[in-house]
Design brief:
2 copies of one chain form a homodimer. Chain A is α+β, with helices and mostly antiparallel strands. In chain A, 39% of the residues lie in helices and 20% in strands. Chain A has 2 domains: 315 residues, Bira Bifunctional Protein, Domain 2 (BirA Bifunctional Protein, domain 2); 86 residues, Anticodon-binding domain (Rossmann fold). Chain A contains 16 helices and 19 strands. In chain A, the strands form 3 sheets. In chain A, strands 2, 7, 8, 9, 10, 11, 12, 13 and 14 form a 9-stranded mixed β-sheet that branches. Chain A has a 5-stranded mixed β-sheet with strand order 16-15-17-18-19, sandwiched between helices. In chain A, strand 12 and strand 13 form a beta hairpin. In chain A, helix 2 crosses helix 6, helix 6 runs parallel beside helix 12 and helix 8 runs antiparallel to helix 9. The relative contact order of chain A is 0.11. The N terminus of chain A is likely disordered. At the A-B interface, helix 1, strand 1, helix 2, strand 2 and strand 3 of A face helix 1, strand 1, helix 2, strand 2 and strand 3 of B.
């Protein structure tokens, strides 16, 4: 009853036209760009043989409270979680990977691996809205499930890179793919530090934030987390510019399997033309990665991380299913759009009208609709004006809508069972029978 | 902390693979059908010159507590409404129309009317899940804003009907569009009942449910809501089979403007080939309709209402904006799919592979990826196997994936800088240079 009362109390003052905080309205011009970007990504991903899956954004809250969550802190503090009218706890998905693992686990025995799956879900995080950080955004998720070998890592990283270069024409110089493997950092800790880090989780989180602060601040924090000499070792490690340099400084890392994997991956990525670079400081602050991780970083225009991903073997085991090897990435629409815009590569929506049908009198309103319908059946994009207009007004409307053809129907046309057909680019006009005139649209007059 | 503890307590037992109750998972085969249906509707709607808009499913709760809601009972008892971490009350939209009104009101002064706008949002209702009634479904919304004349009603109803006949090829006999105008029922009450109905809201809700019960039950309820003689009048009115019959039984209704509008609409719908029928019992249990209402009812296969809509002038006034005339409909994906399935008209997804690249040895894994990338750049849908395979295994995989071409790369091909290219439909095989082989895909061998 309370809601009802408050509604009555409020009904005299106008409702706000603002959307909910931190989400977007899409007017047709915005939606056109959104769909144009979507179509480019989708068609490119599908050329890679990836198949689309989907699920509701409503998920049982437990899914993010277990170790399935990409980031426990986000799961705890930034999810939209509520209790439904039946007492079930529900979360608006903050990411797609737990859902993907759930779907794969449910059919682990009948699916035919390896799978190449993609999705384009909206995901939700309760955070203070700011530039590029919304509470809802759309995110491309591409994953290969069921292949433990590094060939899957190579394919996923190449796909990530080629969405930018091939689907949108971004120059290879406009970004770099920073690649690492968390096993290298673990091996460094074991081989070269004087003692295990007292708080490895906080240490890795600090390393993950390295790009976001200046060097002095980073060093101070590192010295709070490690003994003085170990902090110096770690700094040297993180600043190595290549895997070769890392290995010459820390030769005992050469026999670590993570390094062998990385070397194999980098050989493949070079052959495939991916602009990659080893980055020892790349951690990605997530729980579930188990192997190679990567991040695509814009180096011209924007200088920021655009998106990333990595290998997360075994997530399906949380569901009691066999552990399935997996590697994938998530690419958000807001960041992708900002990256493309900075490069002048944002595609534009190109829908314009082919035909405008103009009723010259009130009597011809329904007849105009009939002619528009005939044009649509012949494949044209057609609109009939909903109120009578003069020929001059009709041509004005058609030009505004980008239509190439105008069709007039007035008393004369109705009586003669014809239409008057005007081709705007050539300003030519003719009469045509009311049955079949639409087939003239296919051949533009000379 | 509580959530954290419960997560630890739970981590030993497996998570459920079930989705949240009343929502759907879309495996690739389901998603393929969903997208195939979506593509048909979208491309047909766009031929009508409708432009897509969108918005977040998160809306301020006030939007549905004011009179903007299609149905107050639903707004009160069936919405997903919760309080966010910042204390704001949020609702998962149960329908799109209030959002549309919000968007139009926000730019009422700068938008150029009439507008033809469509959207394909997911909408949410907390209800007991049952056949065809889910908690989340996707819904096509098409609306014309800014045109008060009946020409807009005619266009919207024709579009609704032609989605079934033209986008999917449904026979005109498979459904009927039931049309009415709420002004006729109001006029009947004023002109022919002995007194105003004591509870008009309950009366209209009862009439709205007429199709869902047998005649005796309906009559009993009607007699609880109206004096005996008035109930008999109402029954006669509701059972009239056509507008002509209604007018011959109740001649004083002929001068009612609602009847004149309906006659004009029906003339237009007949010209446009829409299978319409007047239905005096059509009320649609909603608050905001102000004029003609309609419902598309399946008459072969399924016998049930598929979708409906009508005119709802002035909703934008709730936002303090000028009242904008509007007419539209909402078509849900679940009902549409069931209708098409019953008629054997459900489109299928048709994505299959063009090329499978088979690495014959471990050394050729990355090279196979490179060849697949070349094929994609030439427009083909291509996959490289992630593990080496024999030629026989490769052909088996290719046949399963529906690929027409198989490309082999082994030590021989790598050394000679060639590929071996097999065309499966003709079982022909040839060698081709490793640079440029992909251009052979365009011309199938004779």
């Amino acid at each position: 009853m309370r809601e009802n009362e408050s509604s009555n109390a409020r009904s005299s003052q106008p409702l706000s036209v603002a959307p909910y905080r931190g989400v977007r309205d899409f007017y047709p011009e915005d939606m056109g760009v959104f769909r144009a970007v979507e179509a480019r990504v989708r068609s490119w991903i599908e050329r890679w043989g990836f198949e689309e899956y989907g699920a509701s954004l409503l998920e049982p809250a437990e899914l993010y409270e277990a170790k399935a969550a990409e980031n426990e802190e986000i799961a705890r503090e930034q999810t939209y979680t509520f209790t439904d009218r039946g007492g079930r706890r529900v979360t608006l998905r903050p990411e797609m990977t737990p859902t993907l693992a759930r779907l794969a686990a449910a059919r682990a025995k009948s699916l035919r691996f390896p799978l190449r799956w993609y999705s384009f879900p909206n995901v939700f995080r309760y955070e203070r809205p700011q530039e590029g950080r919304l509470r809802e955004h759309w995110q491309w998720n591409c994953d290969i499930l069921g292949e433990p070998g590094v060939s899957a890592d190579i394919e996923i990283i190449t796909l990530a890179s080629s969405i930018l270069t091939d689907a949108f024409g971004a120059p290879r110089e406009s970004f770099e793919v920073r690649v690492s493997h968390r096993g290298i950092l673990t091996a460094l800790e074991g081989e070269y530090l004087s003692e295990p880090p007292p708080n490895p989780t906080r240490l890795w989180a600090w390393i993950d934030r390295k790009e976001k602060m200046d060097a002095a601040q980073f060093t101070r924090g590192l010295r709070d987390l490690l003994p003085f000499d170990d902090a110096k070792v770690m700094e040297t490690f993180l600043e190595a510019g290549s895997l070769d340099e890392t290995l010459s400084l820390f030769p005992r890392l050469a026999s670590v399997s993570a390094v062998e994997l990385l070397q194999e991956a980098q050989e493949g990525l070079t052959l495939l033309g991916v602009p990659w670079r080893f980055d020892a400081s790349l951690v990605r602050g997530f729980n579930y990665y188990t192997g190679i991780v990567f991040e695509v970083f814009a180096v011209s225009g924007l200088r920021r991380s655009i998106f990333g991903g990595g290998r997360y073997d075994g997530l399906t085991a949380l569901f009691g299913a066999p552990p399935i090897p997996a590697v994938g990435f998530g690419l958000g629409d807001v960041t992708l759009t900002a990256f493309l815009k900075a490069l002048g590569l944002l595609p534009q929506s190109a829908l314009s009208l082919d035909v405008l049908v103009v009723p010259l009198g009130v009597r011809q309103l329904a007849l105009a609709q009939k002619h528009a319908l005939s044009a649509r059946k012949a494949g044209a994009r057609a609109v009939a004006l909903l109120a009578p207009a003069s020929p001059k007004e009709g041509v004005g409307e058609a030009l505004r809508a980008g239509a190439r053809w105008v069709v007039f129907v007035g008393d004369h046309e109705e009586a003669q069972r014809i239409v008057t057909l005007k081709h705007l680019p050539t300003r030519t006009q003719r009469e045509a029978p009311e049955e079949g005139w639409e087939h003239l649209l296919a051949g533009e007059p000379a």
